[in-house]
Amino acid sequence: MTKYGVVVGSTRKNSFSRTLANGIVAGLPADAEVTYLEIADLPLYNQDYDADSPEVYTKFREQVAAQDAIIFTTPEHNRSISAALKNALDVASRPWGENVWAGKPALVASQSISGISGVLANHVLRQSLTFLDMPTMQQPEVYVANSGELLGEEGEVANADTAAFLKEVGQTFDAFTKKFK
Questions:
Q1: How do strand 33-36 and strand 69-74 relate by DSSP bridges?
Q2: How many H-runs (helices) and E-runs (strands) does the chain carry?
Q3: What CATH number is attached to the domain comprising 86?
Q4: In angstroms, rounded to a whole number, what is the distance separating the alpha carbons of residues 54 and 159?
Q5: How many C-beta atoms surround the C-beta of residue 10 within 10 A?
Q6: Which of 118, 126, 142, 162 has a Cα at 20 to 30 A from 81?
Q7: DSSP 3-state assignment of 138?
Q8: How far is CA 91 from CA 18, 42, 71, 147, 177, in A?
Q9: Are 122 and 141 in contact (CB under 8 A)?
């Protein structure tokens, strides 16, 4: 059984990024253990906390450390990832030398309500994951444009072709992850 952590880069209730994650998770094996790692309540990272971290930091780091692989879904905010997602990356990679992301296979999927499909956020996130030492699945690339039409706000993918594609992405990521176990 593989443990998959899911980090949704949007903290909005009924976010399209969460629906995107749900679509990918649908393609994972039935025995996969999936944990959505919540990032909304993480205080802004501050190096002053390294010596005495808030309990919420410690709990989040422990949750990340317990996963075998991580699925990241992100919206695009001002041509980048959300502040909440960047903060989560920082929290779990610190204090220096205690990066709990390291070595975990990663999948990056982005979405946008526009036609640009979050492509820039996707690549910004990939840059950070490279530094965090996370082997990242390269193909298929996952960019969902016009997410307001393709991804429903009730947690279900609204478009059948998109749902099938995302399920296939989940299956491909499972095979990619097994290369590292």
A1: unpaired
A2: 6, 5
A3: 3.40.50.360
A4: 41
A5: 24
A6: 162
A7: coil
A8: 21, 8, 17, 29, 24
A9: yes
What are the start-end ranges of the H helices in the chain? 16-25, 55-65, 83-93, 119-131, 147-150, 160-178
Domain total of the chain: 1
CA distance 65 to 104: 9
Q: What are phi and psi of 151, to 5 degrees?
A: -115, 120
- Which pLDDT score is estimated for 176? 98
Q: How far is CA 169 from CA 45, 67, 132, 173, in A?
A: 32, 19, 23, 6
Domain residues for the domain of 165 are: 3-178
Residue 92, both tokens: 């779990």
| Residue listed under structure tokens 């997602």 | 85
Would you report the helix, strand and coil content of the chain in percent, each value rounded to 5? 40, 15, 45
Average pLDDT of every residue of the chain: 95
Q: Alpha helices of 26-159 — where are they, by DSSP H?
A: 55-65, 83-93, 119-131, 147-150
Q: Is the pLDDT of residue 152 over 90?
A: no
- What is residue 50's predicted lDDT score, i.e. its pLDDT? 93
* Model confidence, pTM: 0.96
pLDDT at 151: 86
Task: Say which residues have a Cβ less than 8 Å from residue 55's Cβ, sequence separation at least 6.
Answer: none
Angle between helical axes of 119-131 and 83-93 (0-180°, round to 10): 10
> Do residues 82 and 74 lie in contact, with contact meaning Cβ atoms separated by under 8 Å?
yes
